[in-house]
Task: inverse folding
């Protein structure tokens, strides 16, 4: 079973700063299988990135994804007020079929 | 506009049963795989179950295997989750999510707002 670990648990930044979120897999995974989601309080998650680096429809280009094998990164180039939220990585595999990381909270410093 | 609207949540006693529904609109439901994902209060996301477009392939998380059953009615554009032998640890908001497949990538591109299931005596 592949386990996803996200770091840091909480990232305290100011609007305009760059955010770098990490997602590490317990074993090598295909980059095609890695996605990122944003969730705000009381809302459903929103797909940001799929295939490790492809932006979903309507996602601003300040969001970018990268990485391979066991190390993946979500970067927000310049934080906007609406970007303060919890971010989850997710992997598609064999068993379990889908796995989520524990999340990284990006809050206002 | 793609819409997923869940219903059927509520308070149920431990050992009880519940059936969740998800009404889909705005897309060709019978061509998409679907899943249920849950989120316990204050916790992260946990994938629960998956169903292929034709219902021929079903998958479950180990935590619900043997207790939960996923199904769909393509004529009614609806997804279901039948939950039996409910436990306190099943307390969560249950989201239905559309599974999209793009160039080998499976991911959840649309989500419903969720329905809250509370298991308590």
Result:
């Amino acid at each position: 079973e592949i386990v996803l670990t996200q770091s840091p648990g909480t990232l305290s930044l100011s609007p305009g700063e760059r955010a770098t979120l990490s997602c590490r897999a317990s074993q090598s995974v295909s980059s095609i299988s890695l996605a990122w989601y944003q969730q705000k309080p009381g809302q459903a998650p929103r797909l940001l990135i799929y295939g490790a680096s492809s932006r979903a429809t309507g996602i601003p280009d300040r969001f970018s994804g990268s990485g391979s094998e066991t190390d993946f990164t979500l970067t927000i180039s310049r934080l906007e007020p609406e970007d303060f939220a919890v971010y989850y990585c997710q992997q598609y595999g064999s068993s379990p079929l889908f796995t989520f990381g524990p999340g990284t909270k990006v809050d206002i410093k | 506009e793609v819409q997923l609207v869940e219903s059927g949540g509520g308070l149920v006693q431990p050992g009880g049963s519940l059936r969740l529904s998800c009404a889909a609109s705005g897309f060709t439901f019978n061509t998409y795989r679907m899943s249920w994902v849950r989120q316990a209060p204050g916790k992260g996301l946990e994938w629960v179950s998956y169903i292929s477009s034709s219902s021929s392939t079903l998958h479950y998380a180990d935590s619900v295997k043997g207790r939960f059953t996923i199904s769909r009615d393509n004529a009614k554009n609806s997804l279901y989750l039948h939950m039996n032998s409910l436990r306190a640890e099943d307390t969560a908001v249950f989201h239905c999510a559309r599974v999209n497949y793009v160039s080998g990538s499976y991911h959840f591109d649309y989500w419903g707002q969720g329905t809250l299931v509370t298991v308590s005596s």
